[in-house]
Amino acid sequence: MPSAAQRTRKVAVVGVSLSDCGRVDTATPYALHAQAARRALADSGLDRSVVDGFASAGLGTLAPVEVAEYLGLRPTWLDSTAVGGSTWEVMAAHAADAIAAGHARAVLLVYGSTARADIRAGRRTSNLSFGARGPLQFEVPYGHTLVAKYAMAARRHMHEYGTTLEQLADIAVQARINAGHNPDAMFREPITIDDVLSGPMIADPFTKLHCCIRSDGGCAVLLAAEEYVPDTAKPPVWVLGSGTAVSHTTMSEWEDFTVSPASASGRAAFARAGVRPSDIDVAELYDAFTYMTLVTLEDLGFCAKGEGGAFAAKGRLTRDGELPTNTDGGGLSACHPGMRGLFLLVEAVRQLRGEAGERQVRKAGGRLPELAVASGTGGWFCSAGTVVLGRG
């Protein structure tokens, strides 16, 4: 991504929204895309004619062409990058580059999924792997599921650094505390470390509450060039810097199970934004499993490698903690309809705007947060995208 000095135009997030989320039994994924898109446009105050860029993934044979057609859009800039949960941070980086370079005026990122409703209705079954072709053919026959890959990585961190199950469980507890302040969260009832540890085993060491929930839902984010900001309905949230990285697809090619590609994407994003991890007020991190939160905190530089368990303890990640993290409750408690990375951007923007209601983070003196980071993870730590956002 070009540095700020190289850009021809500044880029802002000017509209964000959620579709109906949680338990949505009567809508199609296309309908959730449309609902989120309409709401994001309304949130921005801009006319849809301004939108000439579109990015989507995960739906349709020719995504994003099918979704754009459903929405009645004819974009001249497209992105269909699909790298799992980090897709949306990577797309946001691409969109910001395109707008800065003058290739687009405004780019709409949209996602929607009925993952939960489809299983309940028998329209699909729960998948244990992403496929059995290519490099994955050497792992799938042995039953190495996606959750097992995360679990194995967590065990390695525990072995290397003495990280405890209680420390991992505390991350789930704090996510639930944050969800308790979010009326839209799917699960809001408080849980304890003992609740997490005593739950049914999914993949050792992960019990049920170490793992993300399954929900329905969608969201949308609209980015636009700086000249459109005076016409928007809300204060802009500026894209200050971003970074992307990949690591591996087969576990045998992962050099270190305790290091995620966020170590590279985060370093680039902070450098390009001209800020340090210690400057960040709010962190929105992909949390399909508790270990993801822990290792991403380390790899983004909020603490040293191996210190994530101790760093995340004592309520540090809650709304009122030193580093409010996954302030909506995250994928562990709020919603997780699949590739959740776009939800991270929505929540980060709402926090910086001061629109988060009961879960709003406040700095000393009641001031709003000024800087946020959204960092998505794809696959089983296969890819990462990190975006630094600033209020101004």
| Total domain units | 1
Output the helix-strand order: EHEHEHEHHHHEEEEHEHHHHEE
Q: Provide the residue-averaged pLDDT.
A: 94
Q: What's the number of helices?
A: 12
Global Rg: 19 Å
Please supply descriptive tags for the structure shown above:
392 residues; alpha/beta; Peroxisomal Thiolase, Chain A, domain 1; nine-stranded mixed beta sheet; two-stranded antiparallel sheet; 17% strand; globular; disordered N terminus; Thiolase; acyltransferase activity, transferring groups other than amino-acyl groups; Thiolase-like; Thiolase_C_2; Thiolase C-terminal domain-containing protein
Structure description:
The structure is a single chain. The chain is an alpha/beta fold and 392 residues long. The protein has a single domain, classed as Thiolase/Chalcone synthase (Peroxisomal Thiolase, Chain A, domain 1, 3-Layer(aba) Sandwich). The protein has helices spanning 29-44, 65-71, 87-100, 115-120, 146-161, 165-179, 193-197, 262-273, 290-299, 308-311, 330-333, 341-353; strands at 11-18, 53-55, 77-79, 106-113, 201-203, 206-207, 217-225, 237-246, 282-285, 371-378, 383-391. The strands form two sheets. A nine-stranded mixed sheet has the order 3-2-4-7-1-8-11-10-9, with helices on both faces. α6 (165-179) crosses α9 (290-299). InterPro entries: Thiolase, Thiolase-like, Thiolase_C_2. This is Thiolase C-terminal domain-containing protein. It comes from Streptomyces malaysiensis.
